[in-house]
Amino acid sequence: MNTVATIIPHSRPAIDEEDLRATAEVLRSGQIAQGPWVERFERDMASFVGVRGGVAVSSGTAALELALRALDVGAGDEVIMPSYVCPAPWLATQRVGAEARLVDIDLDTFNIDPIAACQAVTKRTRAIIVPHLFGLPADLTALEQIGIPLIEDCAQTLGVTEQGRPIGTVGRLTVCSFYATKLLCAGEGGMVLSNVKGDFERVRSLREYDGTSTLNPSSCNAKLTDLQAALGLSQLGRFPDFHERRQILAEAYGVALSSKAAVCPTAPPGRTHGYYRYVVRLPHLRTNSDGLMRLISALEQQGIHCRKPVFRPLHRYLGQSGFPNSDEADRTALSIPLYPDLTDDEARQILQSLDEVFP
Ligand SMILES: Cc1ncc(COP(=O)(O)O)c(C=O)c1O
Question: Per residue in 193-239, pLDDT tens?
Fold first, then answer.
């Protein structure tokens, strides 16, 4: 039972007057399906990420599926991915008929463990999906040495670097998500980006089914609308402000929690952090199977909506074992509200509650 009148949500989109104006303009134009705004969004995102081209699609999940299709991944092929991630990479792999090979994560970064990825390679491996989780780049330098095409999953991370390289520019293909509470929101939406023209042209030809001389069973309707693209473009213009606000809040959280038994997020040498999520590890919960959920309930009673950052690791859905770091993250990782729209007062209230419940 709640004891407070208002809850600070775990996440909230930052919508301003400019977003309203941009979407109203599209509505007034009468052209609301895929059109010139989508084209501009593709161009501006490609230049923001630092690659040659992009193709807007209906979701991050669709982007992953079409990225795999661009690489011709299909039946009989294997795709490596971490277990500690939302179901989207696994679903995309199922859609194209390939097999997902799950590997463990590096607990300090929550990202795919490059050594485990290397050990999982077989003759059938065609791609590695590399989610950059919670705003922190994965170890791209180690991963690219494996020599398998990387699909960078930037659904949770944009505008940061690994060894001085902007993320999204290292892999063969990159995917983004524009879901309502992502770094840039369009309600729903996604994009596939690449430096290889043939790759994104392939995605372009698969995202819609009309106007082709032959029927292609892999084609779909995965288009983004101009209405969504206008919102995405307006948000893109504010990305530097969003990024800065996240840094300020993360800094304040780090200082306030420094005396607590919580492992706060930091960037390893050579990487920068975008703090899409502020995920702490609480090692004292390692041996307590429902400790995290009880903590989340206690915080909710105080009006703070925290969450497990990954609902359930993939290996647990699939009945697999041998992923100790993913299991530990599942038991000990807590995502604390942090987003550009969070006010200073709300941040103070969050820290006050954490001070009470964290040892
Ligand atoms: C790492 C990661 N990849 C892919 C996706 C899928 O994106 P979408 O929800 O737009 O399909 C998400 C969404 O939560 C995600 O977090």
Answer: 999 999 999 999 999 998 888 899 999 999 999 999 999 999 999 99
Same fold, 17-237 and 239-357: no
Domain residue ranges in the chain: 17-237, 239-357
| Tens-digit pLDDT profile for residues 11-43 | 999 999 999 999 999 999 999 999 999 999 999
Of the candidates 73, 118, 68, 114, the residue with the CA atom closest to the CA atom of residue 88: 68
Closest atom of ligand 1 to 62 CA is 11
Q: What is the pTM of this model?
A: 0.97
Across the chain, the runs of DSSP E, i.e. the strands, are: 53-57, 78-82, 99-103, 105-106, 111-112, 125-131, 150-153, 161-162, 165-166, 173-177, 190-194, 278-281, 333-336
**CATH T-level topology, domain 239-357:** Aspartate Aminotransferase, domain 1 (3.90.1150)
Q: Cα(61) to centroid of ligand 1, in Å?
A: 6
Which CATH class name applies to 17-237? alpha beta
228: Cβ below 6 Å to ligand 1? no
Q: Are 42 and 48 in contact, with CB atoms under 8 Å apart?
A: no
